Amino acid sequence: MATVPRHLVDGERVGYHTGVEPKDAATLIIIDRAKDEPNVLLGRRHARHVFLPGKFVFPGGRVDASDRAMRAALPLHPDVERKLLVNTKFQSVNDVQALALAAIRETFEETGIVIGSRAAVKGSVPSGPWSKFLQTGFYPDPSLLQFIARAITPPGFAKRFDARFFCVDSGAIVHRLENIVHPDAELVELTWLPITEASKLDLPVITGFVLEELQSFLRAGQGSDLPVPFYNTRSGDFTRELID
Hints:
- The chain is of the alpha+beta class.
- The chain has one domain: Nucleoside Triphosphate Pyrophosphohydrolase, CATH 3.90.79.
- It contains seven helices and 13 strands.
- Strands 1, 2, 3, 4, 5, 8, 9, 11, 12 and 13 form a ten-stranded mixed beta sheet that branches.
């Protein structure tokens, strides 16, 4: 276990808020390998957002109740499923699959990108946030996602998230909706950049850490057996440990 300099994270905190519990959230990093150096997709948040205004982030957001009820084209890889269950209170596979589904749904809502399959799926599907996704003719496919990092916002922040960072190859994109990103949307700009260039953007601190983890993950060959870094607060220190 390694200690991360706390001032790097606390510098983003405005005031000190007590009693804020972290919400389950998920983020998706899409990797384009068409060029010599892999490119990643980031979006710039609207300047009027209370949380991380104007910052460049990966698409993502909170887990919705419908994510636990949504049918998937194919299940999570067993190694991903197992690591997502480590150090959680989750009781079922549906709970951890909901994390991957949330990453796919939020990416669709914020960018119009569909990660999915036309595979036949049995059973009913929930109404609400997933309706527009299903209108594209695809079901979400979490089997395509790899789990590369987890981070829990330290105490004291007005909003706290227990965020899981997934990645997927751009070849998994099966459809795109137009005009999702515009000046009044949650993300006002999308950009594909090499990881080294992306690191120079105005990023949340944890996004910068995850970009470094992504580089290491890619260099190591993207194996499903690789340990997953977990950023969390232990005895007042912000730490990095590994989920094997």
